[in-house]
């Protein structure tokens, strides 16, 4: 399950971007494309497992799903791709360029300062 290594990388990204001081990460927001090969439920489960008994145990992982969008190079039509075939629904062309859907990024990391 490659979602486990992705979850580990998300933690590394968060650790690398937390300022010095006493902070807790409250939420990590991700953008995951439909064609990224990532199963959001498996990623959430993996994140939950690897953060047990760590400073990230209470961190909420929020995943925004990005649709697969194609652009037809023949008729200039932009459309959501919901099948595995990249065929323009307007003209039937197969000259379709993927515009979005492969994203996999940490969109934001929310932190709170720890009160002593």
How would you describe the overall organization of this protein?
The N and C termini lie far apart (39 Å). The protein is elongated, with a radius of gyration of 18 Å. Helix 2 links the parallel strand 1 and strand 2. The chain is built from two helices and six strands; from the N terminus they run H-E-H-E-E-E-E-E. The chain has a three-stranded mixed β-sheet with strand order 2-1-6, with helices on one face. The longest helix is centred in the N-terminal third of the chain and has 16 residues. Helix 1 packs across helix 2. The protein is an alpha+beta fold.
Helix share, percent: 10-25%
Task: Kindly report how far apart the N and C termini lie.
Answer: 39 Å
Biggest sheet: strand arrangement: 2-1-6
Beta-strand segment tally: 6
Measured on Cα atoms, how large is the radius of gyration? 18 Å
- Strand residues, percent: 25-35%
Q: Quick one: biggest sheet?
A: 3 strands, mixed
Order of helices and strands: HEHEEEEE
Number of helices: 2
Shape: elongated
Which structural category do the helix and sheet elements fall into?
A: alpha+beta
Low-confidence parts:
none
Mean pLDDT: 94
């Amino acid at each position: 399950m490659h979602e486990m290594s992705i979850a580990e990388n998300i933690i590394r990204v968060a650790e690398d971007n937390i300022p010095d001081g006493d902070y807790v990460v409250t939420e990590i927001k991700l953008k995951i494309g439909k064609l990224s090969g990532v199963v959001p439920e498996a990623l959430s489960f993996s994140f939950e497992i690897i953060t047990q008994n760590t400073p990230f145990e209470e961190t909420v992982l929020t995943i925004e799903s990005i649709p697969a969008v194609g652009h037809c190079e023949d008729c200039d039509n932009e459309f959501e791709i919901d099948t595995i075939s990249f065929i323009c629904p307007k003209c039937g062309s197969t000259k379709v360029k993927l515009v979005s859907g492969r994203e996999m990024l940490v969109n934001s990391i929310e932190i709170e300062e720890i009160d002593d």
